[in-house]
């Protein structure tokens, strides 16, 4: 049959251009990735053979072989795993469909070359072969089928597929090693790479340094061929853990936390879990899937068992191996498997226990973890009633007290004597939160306010309204009363307070005038007890929806129209005092109406809300500037 010609998907072409034209120090990772793919192929066939033993009938035990042919200049990585069909070759080697791959490519194209080492995280580790090869050929035959296929490419943007012959199922990946990369034809060099990166692989890995004959008796074993999670901790080095993390997680960073345990009791299982030190690209992908692999008696079952770990712990990487689940369990059965639900609950508690230990013994390290993964873990406060309170206790927040993070126990311990609530403000980012005029009165009285900037913050507050009997209270709600809290550098005497602001009659007249000018655009206008420097701000009524929560829901079309807000005015601000004088002298006139509209637009801009009529705002601003010049 004549070879068929195909073009790579655009993303593959971009990736190939990067790996073949840039100079990276970690070129040796190509072997790690090819061995990892071969291991996955063996695992998948072992799982399929549970239901259909004929797939492996008469076959040799699973193994991975690395063969060097110095004369031909080729390096071959072979396995007797599941193999691929023609369509699977096109799907797996011609396209990239893994979530987060676009962001990954954009980062590489931005010059962050060190991140090439996480290539396996996106299911595209195969293409790292082009870092060292002028041409790559894949000879493969799917288990249970008679036809083999040959895939070939020089990495320039196209590939060919033709039918071929192969004895038995599995795949051979043949690399025509580039002249400048001949070091990878040295068996000693290859042996060191395998020992460094792939010693944990559960299948025997051998190196054959001969020519085309490749006799079995010339194969040299190079790995321990034992599932790392089944070995005693005393036999495992930090390097072993690190490389296994790279294998299951696809990253190249250091694991921040390693959890290795053998659990016995109602359910027996082993787990080896890692928390990365860097944020994976797909952490905030809409599918919210965890990346923990499920094994049963060392047989790989699936990496899509949604019931194994909660989505709010999707930063976890690793393996859970059950002794009690049936080997022939299907993904559909997993959804209703009580043993799996029990394991999930125990895994969550164990992870939280380890995080609590870290928070207690390594505050600085835990703060870094929280900055990286806190926004995800906080989803559990809202979603998991059983452990939500534990997660809330673990949570760390930015606040007006400084640049660092604070826990709720620490916040409560330094509350003002008269302070009855835990105050917070939600915003899009820290800078917007810190600039909010609603904070001015709290700062003046030395009252600490939590700065909440993650979208989930608006939701967990609805199910956790208090902590240790201290209610949470938004500073953007009308009920945030500061009158009971004394202290602060700007606290004034009653006499000074009267001198700094208009009289009650003037102030009441001004408020009535602003109400008249704004009409239905606001719910109410009233004197503010929280403003110190700004002339106005907007707040939600005590029983209305918080400002940012309403914006979030409106963006997702969960609410039809925005609620009317209360405008608070600062009677000590020079502008407000001048307006009070003007209304005393001439009553409500066009100038007051224009000023009221400007103040409302200003308050909306500060809140990040769109103003109703930008052109009218611009005209009013220009008119006021002319009058003032």
TrEMBL record:
Role of this protein: Molecular chaperone. Has ATPase activity.
Q: Cite the Histidine kinase/HSP90-like ATPase domain residue spans from the record.
A: 26-181
Q: Which residues bind ATP?
A: 33, 37, 79, 84, 92, 98-100, 121-126, 331
Q: How does it assemble?
A: Homodimer.
Query: Sorted alphabetically, which NCBIfam families does this protein's record hold?
Result: PRK05218.1
Q: Which domain of life is it from?
A: Bacteria
* Chain positions covered by the region annotation C: 552-629
Q: Write down the SUPFAM superfamilies for this protein, in alphabetical order.
A: ATPase domain of HSP90 chaperone/DNA topoisomerase II/histidine kinase, HSP90 C-terminal domain, Ribosomal protein S5 domain 2-like
* Record carries keyword Nucleotide-binding: yes
* Localization of this protein: Cytoplasm
Name of the coding gene? htpG
Main subcellular location of this protein, as a coarse class: cytoplasm
Provide a GO CC annotation, any one.
cytoplasm
Family, per entry:
Belongs to the heat shock protein 90 family.
Q: Where are the annotated segments for A?
A: 1-331
GO MF, one example: ATP hydrolysis activity
Query: What is the protein name given in its UniProt record?
Result: Chaperone protein HtpG
Where are the membrane-spanning stretches?
Answer: none
Q: Which CDD domains match?
A: HATPase_Hsp90-like
Keywords, in A-Z order: ATP-binding, Chaperone, Cytoplasm, Nucleotide-binding, Stress response
